[in-house]
Amino acid sequence: MDSLSTAVKKMDEDLSSVEAYKKAKEHLSGLTPEEMQTYIKMREMKVDQEAYQKMMDAKRKTFDTWSVWGGSGRQKFSLDLWDPSQQVNRAKAEELKLRARKLSKRIIDGSGINVLLAGKAGTGKTAMALAMVEALRVHSDKTVMFVSTIALSDKIHNFYDNQVQEMVNYTKKLMKEVDVLVLDDFGSEAGGMGNSDKTASEPLQKFFFEVADARQAKDEFGKRIKTNIVTTNQKITGGNNSLEHSYHEKIISRLIAKKEANQLIFGGMEDLRE
């Protein structure tokens, strides 16, 4: 009985689609030549839009799949979830949220910029960067790639595994190409490999210079098209615990935001990790 009912329902659906097709044909036969041309153009536009959307979905999936996550695994956050009331300095937290929203809009509107989120550990820098990324995914077609620099460093220094090195090279290629690159915890990887001086190793210096240099690309009008969002626990300048000490100045110049308007400084924010 169930199978018969299903078969009857399928026949009804088929007949319905046939009737709809007949009606559509009747309407089309009554169009003027000008109206028919408009109809054809609209249909072609729809096909083009669908093809473009499929292409963009595939691109976004590639960059998402090749993102390099840290020990916590894949993460997601949004500006709506950023709760200033969790901080003692609520006014500062509100300001950071507002400025992050404005920076996200600038990127959505087409600006290729450097954004810096700096402050001590646990104050919400990564969460804010993820929230900005989510805004870009929802409100634009921009491709995004998230890279934990500590996790990436482990792969870069795995010299003796050819398969890993092939993966590193492909990751580097994507990092050069993606519209928006997030470098999370940048600078923390520089103290690895037994390096107490906290200067990045030669392989790290070479890797990040190649990426940073490629991301200076401009369009035909000379407008920068790539955005870098960097989170760090370090200061830009000032002693051994600074980005300028860890990396060559050419890398810092290309990756780190210098304009105050592009910097989100989490000073005064409390460590919210339990």
From TrEMBL:
Gene Ontology biological process terms from the UniProt entry: DNA replication
Record InterPro entries: AAA+_ATPase, ATPase_AAA_core, P-loop_NTPase
Domain AAA+ ATPase: 111-266
Top-level taxon in the UniProt lineage: Bacteria
SUPFAM superfamilies, per database record: P-loop containing nucleoside triphosphate hydrolases (SSF52540)
Annotated GO MF terms: ATP binding; ATP hydrolysis activity
SMART domains tied to this protein: AAA
Name used for this protein in its record: DNA replication protein
